[in-house]
Design brief:
This protein is of the alpha/beta class. The protein contains 15 helices and 18 strands. Helix 12 runs parallel beside helix 13.
Length: 504
Amino acid sequence: MVHFLGLPVLALVASLYASSVAALNPIMIKGTEFFDSLTKEQFFIKGVAYQPRSPVPDAADPLSRPSDCRRDFGLMKELGLNTIRVYQVDPSQSHDGCMKALEEAGIYLVLDLAAPNHSIIRSNPEYNTNIWGNVRATIDGFKDFSNVLGFFIGNEITNDKHTTAASAFVKALARDAKAYIDVASPRKIPIGYANNDDPEIRLQVQDYFNCEKDEERIDFYGINLYEWCGAAATYQSSGYADRTRDIASYSIPVILSEFGCNLVAPRPFTEVASIYGPDMTGSWSDGIAYEWSQEENNYGLVKIQSDNAVTLLPDYINLKAALAPLHPVGINMHAFHEQRPISTCPPNMPSWEASSVLPPTPSTFTCNCMMSSLSCVASDAALVSPGSLGGQLNTLCGMTSCNDIGTDGKTGVYGKYSFCTPVQKLSYIYHQYYVNVGKREASSCNFDGMAKLTTAARSSDDGCVAEEVVTRIEEYRSIAPIAPKWSKYSALVLSLVVLTIRLS
């Protein structure tokens, strides 16, 4: 049951679902704008962040619970929304029910591809096979839904001048996600990045993700912006005018990937008049309010009760009132011809250290091939003690070379096994120590029970990287038939795509 400030409004949801709508037309990008791919009309995002975390805190995938989706999406439609942003899903779950409920409500999805256990860590960044595998699985789980507007490849990974090197890893992930979508998806789904708007590096982040090769650049950009606080703020005083000037010459669509300062509560949402009015619709593709459900951070539009009922909060009422009179009118895609130049990469300086040389595409085959050549590997004790892996690696890297597993987003130097899992990296270094320092003495493969001897299936790891390219081509070729855009030349194009990914 749903409550409007304590009064039942379940009938509202039922009426909204009484008439279903046809499949939503995919959204596409031309220049700096989003467009409906069939009607060619400009698309403005009216969205909300959707990641309920209570009253079921362990339910990390809000799109796997159809009954909750039907409860919420009708209320979003009544609010006037056309987009949700979801930060985390479980790709092993079915999402058909919730995606159908979204479609019936006329709502698109912007989905973050990262997950807490499969994400790039800003303080110690690396891009490995686990991260890449989860991203691919998530793309596979959502690529066939026409109402997927786009994917965010990262959210505030680089959040200050001390974490800029992490952006090289995020950009590599964007490159690979775009290449994978090209061969695995029946249509092009845009890849974006959401930035936190740190004043010291906001322009560098903005330029970095939109410079260099087309296959490395993101397709749209998001800014999480919380500068407009309360009814006393204005377009000029809030900083919104300054941020609009920052993107005046940007060559791809820009959205407010989060907005809604809560220093004044309840939130009056006076910024909405500028976001969806003449102040900003000429430069922005509009935005996503933070957030749907009331959580500990006090940003909710609704409160989900312990009995799964919903109470509409004052923020819902205020946002609905603010949105109701706003209907931005855009341009038809056929009449839109503006093309802007891409950004220039930011120069290296103390406040910006991300290299333009990106990490390689992670390869499970290469890592498994390497593992099959080892005679000394991590033992079961290492597997059950993941917290000790870093300490073991630090110790060993002072005793033998770790260049082959090293990764440095500042210098752009990445070892040939830099993308393998921590256990695989540790096994590789155990083997190097066993061979080069211990001279294959059995006692040199122990490390307090963390290492063990094994029989290698290969005489060496020579060729593992070269053989991976051939394997990747065959793997991607097996995907190609599901994408109807592939022609009789697909195998040739596919080979070139994969070689570009591997050698870039």
